Amino acid sequence: MRLTMAGSILIRKGMIPFLFVLVNLFQLEAANPPRTQNQRVLLEQEMKASLNILRHEFNNHEKEITLLEQKCESLQETLHVLSKQMMDNQDKQKEFVKSNTSSQETRLSELESTSKKIVQDLKNLQTHLNESTTVISKLDQKLSQLTQASELQHKNMENMQIALAALMDVLQPPQDVAQEFKLYEVKDGDSLGKIAQVHKTSIKVLKELNGLSQDKIRKGQKLKLP
């Protein structure tokens, strides 16, 4: 049992370099050029999954610490009982104590050694738990920064699209439109497919007439109709 607990602690200690490497990767990620929305969403999902794993490990550490504390208390109670028994036996059964002192002292020595080992394991596990808590805090900060940067970039892209659409409206020659095409103002819930169906035309024709490279349109935008 002692070998199993010691091996478990050594395995968890091996996770510390991985955690700090993960933090360094997030720092490098923050220094890289802006990624696409899909790449950012994927990275956020991976970071959240890593945080969930670390939080699960954190909870396991707390449970193990509680278990080790209980075992340590049990051993201390056993030591107290054995010590009291030895003192009583010295007064009542001196001969019996003489013949069995050696085995009891051996048992007592083993229990003391086990108690010291558990206390040391408990200290090591507490140190590892503190390090894991620090890493989790850093990961939370990096995730928050990345989310804010992603939201800001998304908002900037939307503003650029609105400004570009407004510029395209200004650049469209109104006299030609009035002479050759009908104008339609986009309303809430409209799409190129819906507009094409109502006016008996196709999405391709609408895109060609209005110089659109994608299907996205906005409310208030004016479209040429054949």
How would you characterize the overall build of this protein?
- The protein has 226 residues and is mostly helical.
- The chain has two domains: 2-168, Helix Hairpins (Orthogonal Bundle), CATH 1.10.287; 172-225, Membrane-bound Lytic Murein Transglycosylase D, Chain A.
- The chain has seven helices and two strands, in the order αααααβααβ.
- It has a two-stranded antiparallel sheet with strand order 1-2.
- Helix 1 runs parallel beside helix 4 (94-171), helix 2 packs parallel to helix 4 and helix 3 runs antiparallel to helix 4 (94-171).
- The longest helix is centred in the middle third of the chain and has 78 residues, at 94-171.
Question: How many distinct helices?
Answer: 7
For the biggest sheet, the summary is: 2 strands, antiparallel
The structural class is: mainly alpha
Q: End-to-end distance, in Å?
A: 83 Å
Under CATH at level 1, the class of the largest domain stands as Mainly Alpha
- Number of strand segments: 2
Give the overall pLDDT as a whole number.
Answer: 79
CATH level 3 topology of the largest domain: Helix Hairpins
What is the secondary structure topology, with strand pairs?
Elements (H helix, E strand, L loop, with lengths): L1 H12 L1 H17 L5 H56 L1 H78 L2 H7 L1 E4 L6 H7 L4 H8 L11 E4 L1
Antiparallel strand pairs: 1-2
Helix pairs in contact: 1-4, 2-4, 3-4
Q: Would you kindly provide a brief summary of this structure?
A:
Keywords: Coiled coil. Residues 44-128 form a coiled coil. This protein is 82% helix and 4% strand.
